[in-house]
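Example complex used in Figure S2.
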Amino acid sequence: MLDYAALAALAAVVREGSFERAAQALHVTPSAVSQRVRLLEERVGCALVIRGQPCRATEVGQHLCRHLAQVRLLEHDLQDVLPVAAPTAERARLPVAVNADSLASWFAPAAAQYAASAPVLLELTVDDQDHTAERLRSGAVLAAVTALAKPAAGCNSQALGTLRYLAVASPGFMARHFAEGVQARSLALAPSLLFDRKDQLQARWVRRQCRKAVPLPCHLLPSPQAFVEAGLAGMGWGMQPLPLVQPLLAAGRLVELVPGTPMDVPLYWQHARAASALLDGLGRAVLAAARAALG
Amino acid sequence: MLDYAALAALAAVVREGSFERAAQALHVTPSAVSQRVRLLEERVGCALVIRGQPCRATEVGQHLCRHLAQVRLLEHDLQDVLPVAAPTAERARLPVAVNADSLASWFAPAAAQYAASAPVLLELTVDDQDHTAERLRSGAVLAAVTALAKPAAGCNSQALGTLRYLAVASPGFMARHFAEGVQARSLALAPSLLFDRKDQLQARWVRRQCRKAVPLPCHLLPSPQAFVEAGLAGMGWGMQPLPLVQPLLAAGRLVELVPGTPMDVPLYWQHARAASALLDGLGRAVLAAARAALG
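Predicted assembly (590 residues):
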């Protein structure tokens, strides 16, 4: 068996970012934490923590952290079965990765509703829908909303529906930049909006429309609300998620660059296969919300 | 003089994350990019890029990138003075770090309004208000909205006002967890909301109220809107920024844990000192918006 006190020390260091704060959280001395992690590293034969500001898990360390999170979830399920379970008032931690547009629209109310009544602590991390699956694979999270259909090793995948994106801009922006039409030439000069460096949606839409890649001047706006605001203010055009801009399109404050050219991004709920009633409960809440909100 | 073609190659690698994509952006071969960066590294005597997925700048590399951004801004100002300026239709890049709550409330409309009419490309990065100043110091950005009053080296600092935070929860959550009052004992059991691991606001409020540190069970919700949703759904209590929750407080959907115990976070606009009309213009727009929105 693995040494679970040592695993808990490892997970606390990674979660809190330092050996000192991990020691506070576990009510032990920093040297006890550091000794447990060191012994575990000797046992498994490789480094588990990259010492730094903050401390981070190595790849093997991430797998061990995910393993611990799964074991804790399973222990939690046991409490309903055993009359005298482990004396823990501790809530189970559910690390989940979500793409920002889902979190800003349909995901947050569903997850909040579930976590408000279930004995869990949700630990959400935000990443691009093309990259949340990596976090699942690396063991950093137990579940993810992702654009990848193919399940990661040890995971199940369920279709959530598609999040529709439209290439939109303000009417003023359209008049300034696309009066002569939306082609490669005008797109190469008109500022676009990019959520972050990983965001490929604008480039994909342009490649589909123009049948070639066009280098796009871009603003970087890593916030779904700022992204919408920027569109409204005529700062640039961008692929906006339909649930966030539907009322603005209806009011004519945003318009499609080329009417009827949506891009649909299919989303999947991937989760670690080890059955756990708590993770299953979150999954059901997420699936129900997605089916109501997505296409 | 520094080799500016090499600096541009360095900045493109850091911006795009790989030598291949930098080469595409600069319309040269990847080996040309890699040679320019290597020669620059030999010249300055240290590594400038950490080769990885994605490639990142070393500390010296970040300083060189910021220097290049400043030089580009200054060149941009020249275009108004010289009848025949450098033949560039390129917009100036303004890398700026902003805390998430500012970006989600007062900052986005102001910056979008400015960038919609000025010949710039805004590159926003989001970080905790206690950490945006580090990005300025490290040279990753030219300006930042930060909680640090003391200007970073080579920077000016202007007060923006204070962003007010209130410890709030839903009425149902209050009844479930704080029926016997808000003390260390009840706070140690009631789930709190944390924006991310860097978020110290909840811990600071508890330390002030209880006159000691209390370990808080916490959900992690790295999105201002998800944070508000989680509060509404009764998932936990948290320090919410007043501009985002004022209507919800007025409607009674959220209530203060202890009435009249706000925490005010003073915010500052810090920017690189090298005068540039474009950076000054953004600064004026940000200051005006902050004065209208903050206390």
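The first helix of chain B runs from residue 4 to 16. Residues 161 and 236 of chain B are 28 Å apart (CA to CA).
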